[in-house]
Every structure is written in structure tokens, then in C-alpha cells.
Amino acid sequence: QVQLVESGGGLVQAGDSLRLSCAASGRTLAMGWFRQAPGKEREFVAVVSWSGRSIYYGDSVKGRFTISRDNAKNTVYLQMNSLKPEDTAVYYCAAGEISTYIRDYAYWGQGTQVTVSS
Questions:
Q1: What is the pLDDT of residues 37-78, one digit of tens each?
Q2: Contact at 8 Å (CB) between 101 and 94?
């Protein structure tokens, strides 16, 4: 059983940057980020393979968000730049197979709130 703990969420203004972190209790394969806004379905944001050589982003965050990982710390990061109000959501860290689908992730964090004001 792998436990994931996110941190780094908060309230920022449009155009600001924020970095999320997710610490895993053990070694993981791919690690990804999803987000869920009120009244909407959970949405894929980004994923990185264990090696870091394979990375994918959701269309809505390409060019603004960067995912990375430090395997020595069992931690994955999500650097979010040029934030927009529509980025407001609860952001979830997940570990599993490298995929854009929720069903391919076996472990999930509790989520961290990101709010972007206009």
C-alpha cells in the first residue's frame, strides 16, 4: 500500500505561479496529477514515468504546467505558471500506470485546493 500526501495548494491571483508537491510512502511507477473543479468530472493534468523520460500533459495546461519527480525523495512536483481562474480545483496526486485515465491509477492522495482569483 502506497500513501500519497500532497502539499503546496493555496489562494493566488491570476498570472501567479504555484508549485505542488506529492510525497509517496514508497517507490511508485508513474505518478500523475488530476484535478476536479466543483460540479465537474475529475480531469487529467499531467503524468511522468518513473524514469522521467515519458511525460504527458492535458491540453488545458500544456505550456504552463511542468511535472517533475525526484525518485530519491519519492516525490513528484507540479510547477504551475500563468495560473488562470479556470485552474481553480482540488488537485490530486496519483500513482499507477502511465496513463491519462483515472482507472489506471491505484493510489490517490487526499487532494489539495488551488484557488485562482481574477
A1: 999 999 999 999 999 999 999 999 999 999 999 999 999 999
A2: no
